[in-house]
Design a protein that fits this description.
It contains five helices and no strands. By secondary structure, it is mainly alpha-helical. This is Transposase. It holds the Pfam family HTH_Tnp_1. GO terms for molecular function: DNA binding; transposase activity.
Amino acid sequence: MIRDCVFLGRMSVIMESVGKKKRRPRRQFTPEFKAEIVELCRRGDRTVHQVVKDFDLTYSAVAHWIEQAYPDPDAPTGPTREALTLAEKTELTALRQENARLKQDVEILKRATAFFAKETR
């Protein structure tokens, strides 16, 4: 029995070390280096994945640098929801009221069904 406990204890220690990845230390890069990496990716000689592998970088970091260097002009910069017109606001209010009324109707019908189901038994 003691052997099993020791064996299980050793196995748990082994399993803990197998599942964990070694964390990469946080590195800081100069703006010049970032610009060079972005230019390598933009030129088209190599793919982003090749540049990432060659320079031992993370894909997400390089993608972020590219996004910073060349922001998407079509991307929304402010709130994406535009203001509603008066007609849309009126329709929205009416639809919300109708929705609330229909929810009440459903609740009443559920109660009536339960009531009549009890009476027929």
